[in-house]
Amino acid sequence: MARTAGDMFTRCMAVELGGKGIRVNSVNPSVIETDFLKSTGVDPKVIAKGMANKLPVGRCGVVEDVAQAVLFLSAPESSFITGTHMLVDGGHIAAGVGYNTAKASANSK
């Protein structure tokens, strides 16, 4: 629900602020290898491997993947893009991969 609310907020703000020359976009990442994964108590490499086997791109995301998306959206080359939700997910949504898949893969090792 929170992601849906954020996406709608992005759209509303893009419409509201577009006339003032302000673009509003959001970046929606999937499983990204960060220190947060370490705090789950499961080896982050195991989680990453479990998800990577399910994602169309064959790997989990890294922080640089998200940073590159933000960089693109802030660049002049994206000046006609507003109100969009950029998925940085390695095909996660397109493939219909659930998060529980990674957990199941991690627990089976």
Automatic annotation (TrEMBL):
Q: Name one Pfam family in it.
A: adh_short_C2
Superkingdom assignment = Eukaryota
Check the UniProt entry and state the signal peptide residues, or none.
none
Keywords on record: NADP
- Read off the InterPro entries from this record: L-xylulose/Carbonyl_redctase, NAD(P)-bd_dom_sf, SDR_fam
GO BP terms in the entry: glucose metabolic process; xylulose metabolic process
Q: Give the GO molecular function terms.
A: carbonyl reductase (NADPH) activity; L-xylulose reductase (NADPH) activity
Keyword GTP-binding on entry: no
Indicate the family of this protein: Belongs to the short-chain dehydrogenases/reductases (SDR) family.
- What is the name of this protein? Uncharacterized protein
